[in-house]
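Two proteins were folded this term; both appear here.
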Amino acid sequence: MACRMIGSANWRLVATVVLLGVCSLLALAIPSPQDDEEDGTRRIWNKRFQEARARAARRTGKLTNAPTSSQATSRDVGVSDVTAPTASPAGAVDGELIGVTVWRLRNATASDDQNRPRLLAQKDGLQLIAARVAADTPFSEGQMVRLGIEATSERDSYLYVIDREVYADGASSDPYLIFPSQTTPPGGNVVTDGKIVYVPAQADPIPYFTMSPTRKDQVSEALTIIVSPTPLDLTPGAPGDPTRLDSSQVAQWEKQWGGRTEQRESRGGVGKQWTVAEKEAGEGERRLVQGDPLPQTIYRVEVKPGAPALVHVPLRITK
C-alpha cells in the first residue's frame, strides 16, 4: 500500500510538471492581444521591453505574472499577459530603444470611471485625468501634457530632456534643460529595466506642461530626449526657470548620439487612460511587469552599443 501511494504521488507530480510545460509552450505560441494589432517590427520591439521588465522582476525576486491592482486596466490597453518572454531573433534589433508615452490631461468629470487613477495634482479644483496620444498629435493652446519615458538598457542610465521653441520660419529658441530640475530627487532621472520616469515628475509643484506659445508664430515645442550610460555635466535649474544650454554643445550631442531613428506607435493605445500600474511605477512603489501597458511610441536609434541615445519628440501646437 505504501509503495502504491508513493507511485501515485510521483505520477501526479510528473503529470503536473508536464501540464505546466504544455501551458508554458502554449503561452509562448499564442500572440498577445497587442501583438495581434502591431506590425512585425513593433512586435519585436515590444518583446524587448517585455524582456527588460522580466529582468527587473528576476532581480527583485518578484514573479512577472504576480497579480496587481492594475491587472484589469492593463488588459484594457491591449498588452501581453504572457509570463515568459520570447527571445528576439538574433540581430533583430540593432541600436537602442526608447519608449515614450505622451499624455494629454483634462479635468475629470462626473461621467468618468471613478475606478480610474487620477493625477495627484488638481487644476481649478478638479482632479486631472491623463490619456495616451500619438507622438504627432497636435495640441491647442492651454492643453496640459506630460511624458512617460522607459528604456531597455540592462544597466542604469541617465535621462535628460531638452526643450526648444520652434517657429514658423524654421528658426528655434535656445535649448533649455527642463529635466532633471532642482526638485528631482537623487536618482530621479535614472532609467532602468521596468522603471518609468515621468516628465515633469509627480513630485514637481506642477506635474504637467501647459502648451502656452510665447510667440504668435510658434508652431511646436521640440523636445530632445537623451538616455546616457553616464551622467552628463549639467546643472539643473528650478522648475519654471530651466538652465539654458549652449547651442553648439547640444548640436554636437545630436551629431554624436542622434543616429538614424525609426518610430512605431501602438495602434490600440491611443485614448487609453493612465493605469494604476503606471501610476505606482512612476511613484517608485513597484516596477512595470510584462502584463503592464507598453510605451505608446517606441523609438529605435542607431548608435553604438553602450553609447548615449538621443531622440526628438516634437509637440505640435495648433492655432
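Next, the second protein.
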Amino acid sequence: MNGIMNKPANFSSIWSIEGIHYSTGKPFRLEVNNGIISEICEIKELSNQQTKVYVAPGLIDNQVNGYAGIDFSGNSLNDNDLLTAAQAIWSEGVTSFIPTIITNSHESIVKNLTILGEACKADDQLRKSIPGFHLEGPYLSPVEGYRGCHPEQYMRKPSYKEFSEYQKASGGRIIQVTVAPELEGAMEFIKECTRNGIVVAIGHTNASADQINMAVDCGATISTHLGNGCANLIHRHNNPLWPQLANKKLTPSIIADGHHLTADEIKVFCKIKGTDNIILTSDVIYLTGMAPGRYSFLGADVVLKDNGMLINEELNCLAGASFPLKKGVENIMKLAGYSLSVAVKMASENVAHVYGLNSIGKLEKGKRADIILFEMKDNQIQIKQTILNGNTVFKNN
C-alpha cells in the first residue's frame, strides 16, 4: 500500500513503505527495522494505484531562526517552545534542523542556548531531530547592508573565550558558527573553532578576496546564505561574492524562497558550484505560518507581506524568510529547471555531507529511517507523512 503499513499485532519493529522513488521515478518498497532502513527494492507496481505518493529522505534545514510564533533568539523563549516549533517543522517535511541563535546581548545568547540545550537533553525526539545549533553572530560585519537586520549594538570581535561560554551553555551542542573574516582576530578564531570540530561559515561579510581565501585556509567551509547579508550597492569587481563563488572549498547555502535570490542568481550559483556542492536553506524566522502584518523582530519593526516577503523598511533589507524549506525545493525545480531528484538532494544529502551526518540524508540501506511521503500538486509539495528514526512525527489524514 502507499504509505506506512500497519504494524502487526505482535508489535514487530519491521514494517515497509511503498511509493514512487523521488529520484528514479519508479515504484519501490522500503523496509525499516528498528528505525533503520534495512531493504530497498524496485517493484513492478504499487499495491494501491489511487494516488501517486513520492518517498524521499527527510529534508535537513541548517538555518532555522524560529518557527510558528517561536523565536529562538527572543526574550520570551521557554522550555516547551523547541518541541512546539519542531512539531510544526516536521509537518513541512523537515526531519533534521539546526536551531539558529542570532546576534544579541551576551546574556540573551547564554540564556537561550541554555534553554535550547536543556530541551534537547530532555527529549529523545528532539535529540534525534537536532544535530546541533548554529550561532549566526555576533561576530559579523557591523557595516550597514552587510549586517542585514542584525542589531549593530551587539556586534563584536570574535572571541573563542566567549564562544566557549556559549558552547558550555548549549551543553556542547553548537556545531556551526558564522563569522565575518575581516574582523580582528577572526583567523585565529576560525582555526580554534575548526580544531574543536565546529563548522565555520563565512557570512554577513565585506571581506576582501585575500581575507576570504585565508579564512578557507584556516578552516571555513560554508558560505552562509550566499548573495544575501550583502549591501545593495557593491563594487562590480571587488566584492565578497566573487571570491566565495570562485573558491572550490566553499559550499554555499542559498535561500531559494523566491525573494532572496533571483532565478538567474540561483542558476549561476548552481552552475558555478555544481548541484553537489550547494545546499538549500530556509533562514526562516518565527513569523513562518503567521498572517501578513507588522511585527517586531530583533528590536525593529518588520512587515510580512501577502507574498511571504519579510522587510525591515527602515534598513531597506529582508528580515529573514517566512517559507519552509520545501519552498526552496519547489523553486529549484520551478526557477532553475532542475529535477525533483536534484532539488531534494540539495536539501538533504548535500546538507548531511557538509556536517558529516553520515546516518541521514539518503534513502539507503543502513541509514536512519528519516523519510517523507508527499504528493506533487500544481508543482507544490504536499507532505503526507514525516517519519523520524522510524517513527511517525506527522501524518496528514
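Residues 110 and 165 are 8 Å apart (CA to CA). The chain has eleven helices and 22 strands. These notes refer to the second protein only.
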